[in-house]
Task: structure prediction
Amino acid sequence: MNSTKNIDFICVEDEFENSIIKAKKIYLEGGVFVYPTDTIYGLGANPFNEEALEKVNEIKGRHEGKNYILLIDSIDTLSKYVELNSEKHLDFLQSIWPNPVSVVLNLNKKTSSILQINTAAFRIPNHRFCQKLAVELRMPIISTSVNRTGSLPIKHPEIIKQEFSSEVSGIFYSNKKYFDKVSTLIDLTGNDLVLLREGRVKFDELVKKYK
Result:
């Protein structure tokens, strides 16, 4: 616990259930937290809460309007927010998730109207903490790298604590050392698979699954 800043600093392996309860509370109250994902550490928040979104933008030093990756628990949850072009797209998503592959999809009219954007990137993460939190919430969780815009993502919990403890409501960290690479980002808003950023999963592997 970082008593000087009065925030939670919890190892998810040591206090799994407690970390889920605390992260869920922060999310529902419109706060921002740091958490481990299947790629690098992320800043987490509720994308439908304007205050939370503003906090993330402020922490990142980013102008409003920049889209963030959203983590979800299932295809069923995803279907509440997006319009899939075809059964082929649905089959493809089911074949690649859970995995560190983020996919830009067309939002449905209701979600687009609320978020004021037409598309968003989603991922079902291959990470126990993320999956459990997403199941508990049944809502998308913002996931964006823990850094200021223009700087490299921070991988070490103690450095994250030093840099961001005054700006977040909780830091949930892992004692596993695999936070080294971003997710592969692809666009599936049209009929073709478009690579936006290659990360841990190779694009060639995804193309094979899409055929």
Q: What stands out?
A: Residues 8-210 form a domain with the DHBP synthase fold (CATH 3.90.870.10). The chain has one domain: 8-210. The chain has a mean pLDDT of 93. The longest strand covers residues 101-106.
